[in-house]
UniProtKB/TrEMBL annotation:
Gene3D superfamilies reported for this sequence: RutC-like
Family: Belongs to the RutC family.
InterPro entries: RidA (IPR006056), RutC-like_sf (IPR035959), YjgF/YER057c/UK114 (IPR006175)
Coiled-coil segments: none
Cleaved signal peptide residues: none
Protein name as catalogued: RidA family protein
Pfam families from the UniProt entry: Ribonuc_L-PSP
Lineage top rank: taxon: Bacteria
Species classification: Bacteria, Pseudomonadati, Bacteroidota, Flavobacteriia, Flavobacteriales
SUPFAM superfamilies, per database record: YjgF-like
Length: 127
């Protein structure tokens, strides 16, 4: 059985998918981009600001499912320019303690939705 997770504190999906799906005790969080859920506008200006908004959106979806960053077992980071990875990683490291940090992969891609620079998805264990 699966349960759809939805929150107004993260951007609404921009396609035929949900913010997250809880299947048993495994939570699959769709890729989050730097959309501000209050305004619907993209957060721009720096890769740090963009990454910060991505992680705030991810946090909101996790919390809607009764989870948090310590529950995350895997993330996938998609970046438009691997040259910015160090700056993205510095912000990411503020959300994930090395003691319980998840497994992850980082992949450079040609493009992302709305032409953003970074997108992060996650898998978490809830309960």
């Amino acid at each position: 059985m699966k349960k759809i997770i939805q929150t107004e504190h993260a951007p609404a999906p921009i396609g035929p998918y949900n913010q997250a799906v809880l299947a048993g005790n495994t939570l699959y969080v769709s890729g989050q981009i730097a959309l501000d859920p209050a305004t619907g506008e993209l957060v721009q200006g720096s890769i740090e600001a963009e990454t910060e908004q991505v992680l705030k959106n991810l946090k909101a979806v996790l919390e809607a499912a009764g989870a948090g960053f310590p529950n995350v077992v895997k993330t996938s980071i998609f970046v438009k320019d691997m040259g910015q990875f160090g700056r993205i990683n510095a912000v990411y490291g503020q959300y994930f303690d090395p003691e319980w940090a998840p497994a992850r992969e980082t992949v450079e891609v040609a493009n992302l939705p709305k032409y953003v620079n970074v997108e992060i998805s996650a898998i978490a264990v809830v309960g």
